Amino acid sequence: MLEVINRYCHGYVAVPVIVACRAHGLFELLEQQGVLGFAALVERLHANDGHFRVALNVLESLGWLERDAGDAYRLTHQGALHARVPDDVLALLALPFDDYLRGGVPGDDCSLSAWFERSLRGWDAHDALLADLLDGLLVPSLLLALRAPDGRDAQLGPAVLASLPEPARGEVSDYFTRRGWLEADGDAEAPALSAAGSMLWARMFNAATVLSYRPMFGRIGELIFGTDGSVRAATGDGDESHVDRTLNVQGSGFGHQKYFGDLEAILVSIFDTEDFDAQPAYVVDMGCGDGTLLKHIYTVITTRTRRGWALDTHPLQLIGVDFNRKSLEETTRTLADIPHLTLWGDIGDPRQLLADLEAAGVDDPDRILHVRTFLDHERPFREPRGEAMAVAVSGTTVHVAADGRALPEAAVNLGLAEHLHRWAGILGAHGLIVLEVHSLPPAVVRDNLDSESLHYDAFHAFSGQLLVEATTFLDAAAAAGLFQQASSWRKYPRSLPFARITLSRLEKRDYRIRQVSEADLPALLRLEAACWPDGGGFDSSAIFRLDASRRDAALPCAPK
């Protein structure tokens, strides 16, 4: 059932992109021209090159487009399916599902019956995947509207269904029954979910994060082809106009909990010893949100480690740091019964965090364990200073500025290395535990379409977040002098041949590893001569051929 939910989420992203690209002539142009280079497409369609590249990645991931080595695109036979996407389907993005379910929509607009019938017919698409994609604009929004406001009561569905006013009750019950999600012979006064319906219901909050970008996908055409840059602009009171941040935080928290088990194991390895003086006295969570992770960390330490029995003599203080002051207020409430401190802080300014910690009496970095989850990709982009820590590029990762233009991948990767280098400057002996989400090449996404990758990469890139591939993240960390503790490193999914998410405990070392540059040649040639006095080593051209053929080769080790 999770695969079905992922396809629904893909549709929530892909269908608006398809409709926008069709309206602006992409498919017609490729049908006429056969093959066109990216630059020509941007010019002919007056597209914003950054957001347009994200859109093309979505279509390539679906198998509707192919991109060649020369950066030219052609339509595949699957791409002809664009003609079967209904023109009016984006009306579902504007439909007030909450009002519909509670009888608050007046007149003829209070019925979803016509949409349900189209869904039950497979949208007349005659293609199972496309039918699921189109259902993505209907089913997740409907199911989330049926849940409790915080989305956490998985038993609430049938009771809510029975209490709906007409016509919603009859229409939704009929639709669910015909989809096989309600027991056909169940009690009409207390409808029961089928096994499939229960699985769908229990996991549907996985869709909350992508649905939180409803304002953005409702205006995706403006984002890809517009000029005013207002889609991602902040409102006058500082709120974000492109995302429902409350729903986003709830959905993210729901989805992230499954990774906390391995994080717990790292915590136990640190705190379950009797050498209490060598353990951290503080745990600092940058991007603490509502403080849930910090509370979970405290519970693990107090219930599963020997340190938990010695808090009277070796106390532990939790420190929540966040850019959002409302989040700090929530953290204060969450940690009300636990020793804690809250600080305003910016992921992009670790030096200021260190100063603020010192001002609060936390003046020994070697007593601090830093943690953070899924935050580094939200750092603001800074033009790199060009320090000697270059990181390889994949050629498939897309990063977008607020005005829609593409950011150079090399600059983003170098910026990440410099960002992590700034963090390395404030880390002490206990390092940093970090969970991070990563991007994937479109070809990998296409080969694993039932995973969450397509919609994850798309909404992160469209909203200006700086995802990089997992190998790039580790390369950037190494360039900053930070290295993962091998015994603690994990990647997810565990059993598939790609890394969507990684868990690392990063530790400082007194050297850095980076890509080779021309300036390194004299030192490398001296090293070759010392190792191969009889002339058996590489010459300069061979060193650069090796570096070009393998991104992990010819990486010089430099003192910090």
UniProtKB/TrEMBL annotation:
Coiled-coil portions: none
Sequence ranges assigned to domain AprA winged helix in this UniProt record: 135-226
InterPro entries to which the protein is assigned, alphabetical: AprA-like_MT2, AprA-like_N, SAM-dependent_MTases_sf, WH-like_DNA-bd_sf, WH_AprA, WH_DNA-bd_sf
Superkingdom of origin organism: Bacteria
Record keywords: Plasmid
Domain AprA-like N-terminal, chain residue ranges per copy: 1-67
SUPFAM superfamilies the UniProt entry points to: S-adenosyl-L-methionine-dependent methyltransferases, Winged helix' DNA-binding domain
Metal-binding among keywords: no
Name of the protein described by the UniProt record: Polyketide synthase
Lineage: Bacteria, Pseudomonadati, Pseudomonadota, Betaproteobacteria, Burkholderiales
